[in-house]
Structure formats: structure tokens, C-alpha cells
Amino acid sequence: MWPGLRLIRRQLSTLAAARGVVYEKHGEPSQVLRLQKLEVTSPSEYEVRVKMLAAPINPSDINMIQGTYAFLPQLPAVGGNEGVGVVAEVGNHVSSVRPGDWVIPVDAGLGTWRTEGVFNEAALMRVPSDISVEIAATLSVNPCTAYRLLSDYEILRPGDSIIQNASNSGVGQSVIQIATSLGITTINIVRDRPDLPNLMQRLHDLGADHVITEEQLRKPEMKDLFKTCPRPRLALNCVGGKSTTEMLRHLDYGGTMVTYGGMAKQPVTIPVSALIFKNIKLCGFWVTQWKRDRQQNREEISKMIRDLCDLVRRGRLVPPPCYEWPLEDFKQALRDAQTPFLSRKQILMMQ
């Protein structure tokens, strides 16, 4: 095709209705984010045009906008790393998806807080459309993190136990549900709060075996729990600080602690005795890097998504409690996403 004609066709195919939440510099989200029109064109050979359906607000999204995350996209950028959309149009050489398919991002930095966008085929993965929009929109970060934490560090069998802090987080709730489906006992630590009984009941309803506060974790009575429950082989740390040290005291000999977050913004302090006399192993995990390491061969990623969707269909994995906002109300959604103890996932609805 004559290059000039191709250019004219691409210009004619520009869609003016797309909108997105954009930031041109790093800073507090309430100050740097703007809702504005986005230019969207028909996809080229290996591109896919996607109409976004929904996208959550995660802590990593906020950190990325603030400029404190490990990976930062080139500015200006559209906010959001997770979500689900429906394929509207594909380029001539696209083979993995077709119009009508639901897709989610494979990697971070895609910019999902938008009504529509054109992305490289390799940046997307198809998911079944027989699951809810809410679970599809929140599938690629927290459930994937929980799946890997339970799969990659200790060989866990039915009857074994694990211990985790931040148990009411998105990852924590997914850990509870996946572990329950495998017959693994969970010891779940939460911070004290005004609605503690309701939170504890909600986690028990998800399958949590034991729910305790950080204060209870430090008490001598904790030893009574292990008269009926084996000491955990695996500890999952998303907090840091004193919470980490207290969890280590209860880890079994030769066990593993995996750190995947640092909500307390305090160092992970490890007693020397835990390393010498208990032979504890320490690891870190970042789901973004795990996926990037497998971009060339995505079978492990595909199997993980299939397994998670199977749990969803069986009613063994449900999305966290959420509140849905139209895209134009993103500022209120961000405010609630940063409110302590709210315990609801804020989701931006695009259509």
C-alpha cells in the first residue's frame, strides 16, 4: 500500500471519544492526575484496540504516580496497571486474540485507567468472559501473587500451615482462599481496628482458620495454638517492622519467610538466632518481575491464570469487597483507596 494512503487511513480512524487519567509529572495523585481526552487509532499489524471495562486502584498504582515504585513508565503516562477490557479491533498479524475476547495486562505500566487504548499483542493475555468483571479486573496482581507465594517456596501438603500478616489485603484474602482449596491451614494476622469483629468474620467466611491481631501474636498464649495446629512452614510478609520479627518466632525449623511488601515502611529485622538455630530462609517476591522473566515462554503464566479461573468458577475464589466508581469520579476513588481500614477495593468502571 502507498505509504501516504496508509497515513491518511490511520488519521481517519482516530477515535476522539477515548478518555484517560493522565499524569505528566510525579507527585501526590490528587495533585498530578488529570482526566483528559486520548487519541486512539486503528491498530497496526501487531496491535490490539481494547475497550477497557474496569480497572482497580492498587497501592502500586499510587506508588508509581508518586515516583517511588521500582518501575516507572515514561511520562506523560496513563495511571493504572491492572484491569480487564474487551478486544474491539486487531491488527492483521495478531493471532492470540480476536474481537470480543476479554484481555488483561501481562506486565505493569500498561495504563489501564482509560476508556480505550491500543496495545501491543504481547502486552495482553486472554481471560474467559464467563467470570465476573470484578474478578477479571483484579486477577492479574493479587491472586497471581498469592498463587506464586503458595507454590514456589515450600512444598505444602494438606494439613500443613502458613502464617501471614496484612491478611485482609487483596493478596491476603487470595492466600486464604487458595490455601483453603488446598487443605492448608492459615494463621492470619490483622491490625486492631474499630470494626475488628466484622473483619474477622469476613476472613473466616473466606476460609481463614485462625485470625489474630498483632498484639495477640506477641502474647505467650500463642503457644497454645500450636497444640492443635502445626507450626507454619511458610510465613508471608507484607508489612515489615515488628510484625515480621514476631511472625518469625512462630515459624517452624527450616521454614521460609517471603517478603512481598512493606506497608509499615520499616526495615525487616531478623534475629540472628532465627538464622543460626532455626535455619530460616528469607526470600523476596515481586510478581511483575516473575512475569517479565517468563515473557518469552508464557505457559507458566497461562497455567496460573487457568488455575485461578477454575477456582473462580468453583466458587473458591471471589473478588475482595469493592466499590465501583465511574471514571470521572477517579479523585473520590483515589481518596477512598488511600483511607486506612476501609478494606474495600476501589474499581473504576469505564463503560
UniProtKB/TrEMBL annotation:
Gene3D superfamilies: Medium-chain alcohol dehydrogenases, catalytic domain (3.90.180.10), NAD(P)-binding Rossmann-like Domain (3.40.50.720). CDD domains: ETR. Its EC number is 1.3.1.104. GO terms for cellular component: mitochondrion. The keyword ATP-binding does not apply. It comes from the Eukaryota. Pfam families: ADH_N, ADH_zinc_N. It is found in: Mitochondrion. GO terms for biological process: fatty acid biosynthetic process. One of its GO terms (molecular function) is enoyl-[acyl-carrier-protein] reductase (NADPH) activity. InterPro entries: ADH-like_C, ADH-like_N, ER, GroES-like_sf, Mito_Enoyl-ACP_Reductase, NAD(P)-bd_dom_sf. Coiled coil: none annotated. Residues 30-348 form the Enoyl reductase (ER) domain. Belongs to the zinc-containing alcohol dehydrogenase family. Quinone oxidoreductase subfamily. This is Enoyl-[acyl-carrier-protein] reductase, mitochondrial. It comes from Pyxicephalus adspersus.
